[in-house]
Amino acid sequence: MSHELGPAAVILLDAAVWLLLHGAAVAAAIRIPWERFAADGPVTRLRGFEAGGRWYERRLLVQRWKDRLPDGGGWVKAGFPKRRLRSGSREYLERFAAETRRGELTHWAMLLPLPLFALWNNAIGMIIMTIYALIANIPCILVQRYNRARLLKVMSRPSRVCYSRKVISGHLEE
Question: Which of 42, 53, 128, 136 has the fewest CB atoms lying closer than 10 Å?
Fold first, then answer.
């Protein structure tokens, strides 16, 4: 099909399909009750090297760039903003952790339709689409996992700690 479409048409089609896929993924994800994300599954389960988020801080310097990413949770009415902690209560932190799982799985899901773009893109177009898909989703996945690792570390402390911590300017005081 790429031979039938000019470069401008392919670019417009790529942009329109990505926009449609992003919208569909978000619409599907927010319809699932948050409680379904209360526990880790095989994809969202944190691995040993991710303990407490230190790997993300040391190897990826995530704390330097994570705030530059958009917080899609605040874009839709039914979303859950994750840019700042709004409470230190255990219930809130559990919900926040669940929402990081929802966000992570939504971004993983955005990588699945990538082969669809081969229907109208040539090899160079597919390389560009792959780079876009990775750049648009992998940093978000990493931040969701980093935030969850930190949350779970705080939540694993004695329960009095979760309730006694203050939220100062949106960040959990440690």
Answer: 42
Nearest to 143 by CA among 78, 57, 75, 58: 57
Residue 38: which of 105, 106, 99, 86 has the closest Cα?
99
Contacts (Cβ under 8 Å, ≥6 apart) of 65: 139
Q: What is the dihedral sign for C-alpha 55, 59, 63, 65?
A: negative
Structural domains counted in the chain: 1
Place of tokens 């401008």: 8
Do the domain assignments include residue 1?
Answer: no
| 88 lies in some domain | yes
Q: 138 lies in a domain?
A: yes
Residue pLDDT tens, the chain, 174 long: 545 889 999 999 999 999 999 999 999 999 999 999 999 999 999 999 998 899 999 999 999 999 898 877 666 766 676 767 778 888 989 999 999 999 999 999 999 999 999 999 999 999 999 999 999 999 999 999 999 999 999 888 776 444 445 554 455 544
